[in-house]
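Aggregate trends can hide what the representation actually does to any particular protein. For completeness, the protein is quoted in full, as a sequence line and a line of structure tokens.
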Amino acid sequence: MDGMFLLVTSSMLSLVCFGGIGVFWYFQLRHDLFTYTHYPIRFNRKTRRVYVFRHNGPGGVLTVPWDEVFWHVGRGMQQKFLCDVRGHVLEGSRVKDTFAVGHYFDDSRLDRIKAMWEFIRRYMDEGPETVAEHPLDRQIDKSVTPSWTNCYIHAYAHMGPGFIALRFVLFPLFYPIVGLLTLVRWLTLNSCKTPVWPPEVEAECKVEPNDPHRWEEPSYQGEFANRPGSLERQLERMRLQGGGRR
């Protein structure tokens, strides 16, 4: 009797344990591990097409004409306060496909969403020379390389301004947490594959090395932030996007 009770109890505990792991994997981990480091989108102003990466291999790219996309501000399914630039591919009145572009922000920063959309719209409709009025605006901040440096910068930046301000006081707590988050992010990203565009997309979107509108890409996130005048220009740009708020 005792042996049967132990067997049943052990079986139930194992079922709960493995079931919990399975549920956690299905709803969370499968979206982070063994997928792709990022899902890029290309805008080709010459062919007026938008290329949306889905996966490597045949049929892995959604290609849609720029003028046929219904663009709008999208909201999160669960966290409805999160907003992004979103495109619908329509078939009559039915939404056939949808995709989000760029970064998301909470709904208190709709100005950032609108600024990102205006950047894309100007590029596609008016040309690359109109997207950055100031020379110091012509730089890329983000880096998608899954390096230790980028993982550390990401973890550090997401600790929150209050916690960061107390980092020297909370040194024994702050840096171990940042180190753990850095390690987890590095392991997660390095379990993922690098997205590869099909040869035909690469050929259609080829950029000449001497293109005057080609912006330098950073080797790590924020690499160009310390260039003379960059910080001041960024603060000025944020002030202008916020309608003059301080």
About this structure: The CA atoms of residues 93 and 123 lie 28 Å apart. The chain has a mean pLDDT of 84. The first helix runs from residue 2 to 27.
